[in-house]
Amino acid sequence: MSPVARDTAAAGLPWRPCATRAMLEARAAMFARIRAFFAAAGVLEVETPLLSRAAVTDPALTSLAVRPGTGVAGGYLHTSPEFAMKRLLAAGSGPIYQICKVFRDDERGRWHHPEFSLLEWYRPGWDYQRLIDEVAALVRAALDRPTLAVERVSYRALFRDGLGIDPWETSVAQLRDCARRVGIGGVEGLDLDRDGWLDLLLSHRLESGLGRGRLSFVHDYPPSQAALARVRPGTPPVAERFELYVEGVELANGFQELTDAAEQRARFDADLDWRRANGQAEVPADAHFLAALEAGLPESAGVALGLDRLLMIATGASDIDAVLAFPVERA
Amino acid sequence: MLDGDPYTIVENEFVKPGKGQAFNRVRVRNLKTGRVVEKTFKSGESVEAADVHDTEMQYLYNDGIEWNFMDPDTFEQLIASEQAVGEAAKWIKEQDLCKVTLWNGVPLSIEPPNFVVLEITDTDPGLKGDTSGGGGKPATLETGAVVRVPLFVQTGELIKVDTRNGEYVSRAKEA
C-alpha cells in the first residue's frame, strides 16, 4: 500500500457520494427533459469557456481566480456564461442555451454551493415578458407538472402589499425602521445601503411566501438593481428584470438585455469603483464582451436558472448536498 | 460576544439573493440566560469570540447561596452562582465531578455527571407482594430531586439516575 493510500484508509474519509442512485437518475431525467424542450423549440445548445481572462464585475459575485501554471491558462472561473453567450448572439447565433457548471466563491449553505449547474438561454427578438412565459413552460416541463399555476407580481407591488412600503420612495432610515418593525433580529448592528436593506427585507420577509404551489415571477426592479438589464425610462424608471421563485426559493433571474455598449461600460466602471471603495478584489472587465456590444447585440431577452435548486424542488430535498454527488467539502 | 453577553451558535443559515447582499441569519443562545434569539449579519462580518471553555471540576459544598467547585489538578477553587448551577442542583453531591463551562474564568453553567447514585429519603412503602415494578411511584432523593422508581425500591436505598432525562436506571450498592 502506498503512503497516500494508507493515510486515506486510516482517516476513514467519506468517499461515498451524497446523492443517492435515485437522485442521480432524477437529475439525468430532468436534464433530458430540458434538452428535449429546447430541441423542440429550436434553440441551439452551445458551450462556452468556464475559464476566462476576464471576470464579472458585479460586487455581489465573487469569482474564483485560477493561478496560471506554466502554460497559457489562468484567469477566472465564470460565475455565469452570460458574456460569452452574448458574444455568440452578437455574431448571429440565433436562440441559444447552455447547461454548464458555474462558480461563485463565498456561497455555501442549504441552498448554495460554490460550484453549481446553471441553465442559461437567450431569445433574440423577444421581450422579457414573452421569455417569462417560456421560463414557465420550461419549468413545468422540467418538473413534469404541466398544470403548475403561474403568477406575476411587480417588485413594487410585492413590497407594497407585503410590507406597506414603496421601494422607489422609501428612505434608508424608513427601510431600517421597517426591518425593525417586522422583527428582523440584529437590525441595530447592520450597516447597509438602500439596496442592502431591500435585499434584507426581500430575503427575510417576502421570499418565503412566493411560489407556494405555483411559479411566482417578480418583475420590474429598481434601476439600482438592474445588473445587466435594460432600464425602461418612465416615472419611475424600472429595470426590465425578473426573478422566478418556487416554494420560497429564488430559481431564475432574467433580463431584457442591455444592448447599449456605452451604458454597459459605465456600469462596469461603477462596479469597479464600488469594488475599489469597499476593498473587494479588482478584476478585469470583459473587453471582448464590450467589443461585441459595440459591434451590435440584437435586442434579446435572457435568463439563467439554477438546476440544482430545481432538482431540490422536484425531489423535495431540503439540502443542496442531497442532490450533489460530491459537495465541495469532499470534492 | 453580542451586546456584552456570550452566545453559542445554534443555527447559521446563509441567505443571498443571486444579485444582492449576502447575509447570515443566525440563531444564537445566550449562555447566561439560555434564551435563543435570531440575529442577521452581513456575510463576512466578524464578531468578537467569547472566551468560553469547558473544564472538569469537583463540587465541594454549597453554603446556601453559592456553590463551590475545585479544579482537581490545581486545587484552585471557584464559586458558581445559583443561576449557573441551574438544574444541576437537583443531582449533584459533594465530590461529584461536573463539567463547568467557564466564561472569562467565571462559571457560566454546570453540567452534572450523566449518571449519579443517590439515596432515597422518602417514598411510599408500596403494595405488599408487588415486586414487578410495573407502575412505579415517586421517590424523593437526598438532593431533593423527585424521580419515578419501581414499586420494590424503598426509602434508604441507593439508586442510579440518568441526569439527562431524570430517569431511574437501577438500584446501586454504593455511591
Percentage of helical residues of chain A? Answer: 25-40%
Radius of gyration of chain A: 21 Å
Which oligomeric form is depicted? heterodimer
Please give the most extensive interface between any two protein chains, plus how many residues each contributes.
A-B, 30 and 20 residues
If strands are numbered along the chain, what order do they take across the biggest sheet of chain B? 6-5-4-7-8
In one word, what is the shape of chain B?
elongated
Which stretches of chain A are low in confidence, meaning pLDDT under 50 for 5 or more residues running?
Answer: none
Number of helices of chain A: 10
**Mean pLDDT, all residues of chain B:** 89
With helices defined by DSSP (H or I, 4 residues minimum), what is the helix count of chain B? 1
Order of helices and strands of chain A: HHEEEEHEEHEHHHEEEEHHEH
Q: Quick one: biggest sheet of chain A?
A: 9 strands, mixed
Could you tell me the number of beta strands of chain B? 13
Give the CA-CA distance, first to last residue of chain A.
23 Å
Structural class of chain B: mainly beta
Strand tally of chain A is 12
Q: Provide the low-confidence segments of chain B as ranges.
A: none
Average pLDDT over all residues of chain A:
95
Explained architecture:
The complex is a heterodimer of chains A (331) and B (175). Chain A has 331 residues and is of the alpha+beta class. Helix content of chain A is 37%, strand content 21%. Chain A has helices at 3-11, 21-41, 82-90, 128-143, 155-163, 172-181, 194-206, 261-277, 287-296, 307-315, and strands at residues 44-45, 51-52, 64-66, 75-77, 96-103, 115-124, 149-154, 214-221, 231-232, 238-246, 249-256, 300-306. In chain A, the strands form two sheets. In chain A, strands 1, 5, 6, 7, 8, 9, 10, 11 and 12 form a nine-stranded mixed β-sheet that branches. A three-stranded antiparallel β-sheet of chain A has the order 2-4-3, with no helix packed on it. Chain A is globular and about 65 Å long. Chain A starts with a helix and ends in a 16-residue tail after the last helix. The mean pLDDT of chain A is 95. The model of chain B has no long low-confidence stretch (mean pLDDT 89). The chains are: A alpha+beta (331), B mainly beta (175). The interface between A and B is medium-sized, with 30 and 20 residues.
